[in-house]
Amino acid sequence: MKITGAKKGLRGALMMPGDKSISHRAVILAALADGKTEISGFLRGQDCLHTLKIFKMLGVEYRDKKDKLLIKGRGLKGLRKPDGQMDVGNSGTAFRLLAGVLAGQDFTAKLTGDESIQKRPMGRVIEPLHRMGAEFNGDKAPLVIVNNKNTKQLVGIAYESPLASAQVKSAILLAGLYARGETSVTEPALSRDHTERMFKTFGVRLRTAALPSGKHKVILPNGKHKLKGGLKIKIPGDFSAAAFFIVAALIVPGSKLLLKNVGVNPTRIGLLDVLKKMGAKIIWQNKKMLSGEPVADLQIVHSPLKAVEIGGELLLRMIDEAPIFAVAAALAKGRTVVKNAEELRVKESDRIKTVVEMLKGFGVSAAETSDGFVIDGNPELQIAAPLKINSHYDHRIAMSAAVFGLLNQKETTITDDKCIETSFPGFAALLQKAAR
Ligand SMILES: O=C(O)C1=C[C@@H](OP(=O)(O)O)[C@@H](O)[C@H](O)C1
Ligand SMILES: C=C(OP(=O)(O)O)C(=O)O
């Protein structure tokens, strides 16, 4: 992809693609429901299309109309043994959530994915699922989930997760649908809660509790679970996609941009809290609920920014936004410090390394630390040189670099930008439209 500097600010009103996390969950729960589900706003990015294809291999029929996806659920016990291995592509969410679903079946299945997935840690789901009674061959992708007709039913566990991870929590809750007894997950802080919200939408009883220690617990009670059919699920615009346009409008002078129908689930919008502290002008409009998730229109006005220090729970709520946040920090006045971000090292790329490399490529002073990075921001930064930035096949690095490229008066080339298709098809065209 080639980006040239924005002549004017970003203007107009845009709709973001459907939320990636919620799209995966909508397909999974619809496939396990008793009856049909109509899904609108489904993200047709490669990650979610892999999940859909996998359920087709598991015997789930669907109809893909232009604006709707109709899924014929087979009930919790209705999945069929797939013919061949199932490929999640680049998607950690698909891999880990499916491991939970497949742990509860009575057939053996093999999950795999691309080069990046084959390097990502899967012990974090294998270990708790094994404690529930699931058997695996392997500790990473490709991974075999071993079952047969005589496999014993899973048993619920009370899992104290060392990580605040929605993928771990969701894998356990999905396996819990097949388990005897109560299943609970306690996490050090509340990770994104889309699974809990959607379980409730599909009629599954769940209890959640914020513990005095600051930990968070979700309990799936003992009982025979059933997901109801006949629902119409509406998926909000993806906040993680919107983040690129939010930061673009903040850093390009003259911008005033409206993003409509964006998901604003509190477990996802840490970036808005941080940007506010940095001095960003962002106005919320039309807040409402959509299938159990809050959405709003966000108006973003170009603003001078100042540096911040972040870590802990706030970082958890903006973990996928770290790369684009770094772009905002590069243009902010002062030194920005990001701590407690070790998880960034095991995403699609080592995002501590690749973020710092990307910033340096634009002439920014930035350095890695063991658990994050330090950025010396410069609001006066002038870039006017042809540049080549390596995406490392990571969609969020590629899109962050494209946004930064709006400030380069000469051409910025981003390598291997096809990875953007995993989460944001049509990104380049939309950015061009807004920045024209
Ligand atoms: O559950 C999800 O949909 C996701 C959870 C997060 O990962 P972890 O659970 O590994 O923190 C996030 O980084 C990922 O993009 C999507
Ligand atoms: C980390 C991400 O996704 P996943 O874990 O599903 O690959 C992401 O989209 O930034």
Automatic annotation (TrEMBL):
<feature type="binding site">
    <location>
        <position position="21"/>
    </location>
    <ligand>
        <name>3-phosphoshikimate</name>
    </ligand>
</feature>
<keyword id="KW-0963">Cytoplasm</keyword>
<feature type="binding site">
    <location>
        <position position="120"/>
    </location>
    <ligand>
        <name>phosphoenolpyruvate</name>
    </ligand>
</feature>
<feature type="binding site">
    <location>
        <position position="347"/>
    </location>
    <ligand>
        <name>3-phosphoshikimate</name>
    </ligand>
</feature>
<dbReference type="GO" id="GO:0009423">
    <property type="term" value="P:chorismate biosynthetic process"/>
</dbReference>
<feature type="binding site">
    <location>
        <position position="92"/>
    </location>
    <ligand>
        <name>phosphoenolpyruvate</name>
    </ligand>
</feature>
<dbReference type="GO" id="GO:0005737">
    <property type="term" value="C:cytoplasm"/>
</dbReference>
<dbReference type="GO" id="GO:0009073">
    <property type="term" value="P:aromatic amino acid family biosynthetic process"/>
</dbReference>
<comment type="similarity">
    <text>Belongs to the EPSP synthase family.</text>
</comment>
<comment type="subunit">
    <text>Monomer.</text>
</comment>
<dbReference type="GO" id="GO:0008652">
    <property type="term" value="P:amino acid biosynthetic process"/>
</dbReference>
<feature type="domain" description="Enolpyruvate transferase">
    <location>
        <begin position="8"/>
        <end position="428"/>
    </location>
</feature>
<dbReference type="InterPro" id="IPR006264">
    <property type="entry name" value="EPSP_synthase"/>
</dbReference>
<feature type="binding site">
    <location>
        <position position="167"/>
    </location>
    <ligand>
        <name>3-phosphoshikimate</name>
    </ligand>
</feature>
<keyword id="KW-0028">Amino-acid biosynthesis</keyword>
<dbReference type="InterPro" id="IPR023193">
    <property type="entry name" value="EPSP_synthase_CS"/>
</dbReference>
<feature type="binding site">
    <location>
        <position position="351"/>
    </location>
    <ligand>
        <name>phosphoenolpyruvate</name>
    </ligand>
</feature>
<feature type="binding site">
    <location>
        <position position="20"/>
    </location>
    <ligand>
        <name>phosphoenolpyruvate</name>
    </ligand>
</feature>
<dbReference type="GO" id="GO:0003866">
    <property type="term" value="F:3-phosphoshikimate 1-carboxyvinyltransferase activity"/>
</dbReference>
<feature type="binding site">
    <location>
        <position position="20"/>
    </location>
    <ligand>
        <name>3-phosphoshikimate</name>
    </ligand>
</feature>
<keyword id="KW-0057">Aromatic amino acid biosynthesis</keyword>
<dbReference type="InterPro" id="IPR001986">
    <property type="entry name" value="Enolpyruvate_Tfrase_dom"/>
</dbReference>
<feature type="binding site">
    <location>
        <position position="167"/>
    </location>
    <ligand>
        <name>phosphoenolpyruvate</name>
    </ligand>
</feature>
<dbReference type="Pfam" id="PF00275">
    <property type="entry name" value="EPSP_synthase"/>
</dbReference>
<feature type="binding site">
    <location>
        <position position="165"/>
    </location>
    <ligand>
        <name>3-phosphoshikimate</name>
    </ligand>
</feature>
<feature type="binding site">
    <location>
        <position position="396"/>
    </location>
    <ligand>
        <name>phosphoenolpyruvate</name>
    </ligand>
</feature>
<dbReference type="InterPro" id="IPR036968">
    <property type="entry name" value="Enolpyruvate_Tfrase_sf"/>
</dbReference>
<keyword id="KW-0808">Transferase</keyword>
<protein>
    <recommendedName>
        <fullName>3-phosphoshikimate 1-carboxyvinyltransferase</fullName>
        <ecNumber>2.5.1.19</ecNumber>
    </recommendedName>
</protein>
<feature type="binding site">
    <location>
        <position position="320"/>
    </location>
    <ligand>
        <name>3-phosphoshikimate</name>
    </ligand>
</feature>
<comment type="pathway">
    <text>Metabolic intermediate biosynthesis; chorismate biosynthesis; chorismate from D-erythrose 4-phosphate and phosphoenolpyruvate: step 6/7.</text>
</comment>
<comment type="function">
    <text>Catalyzes the transfer of the enolpyruvyl moiety of phosphoenolpyruvate (PEP) to the 5-hydroxyl of shikimate-3-phosphate (S3P) to produce enolpyruvyl shikimate-3-phosphate and inorganic phosphate.</text>
</comment>
<feature type="binding site">
    <location>
        <position position="25"/>
    </location>
    <ligand>
        <name>3-phosphoshikimate</name>
    </ligand>
</feature>
<dbReference type="InterPro" id="IPR013792">
    <property type="entry name" value="RNA3'P_cycl/enolpyr_Trfase_a/b"/>
</dbReference>
<feature type="active site" description="Proton acceptor">
    <location>
        <position position="320"/>
    </location>
</feature>
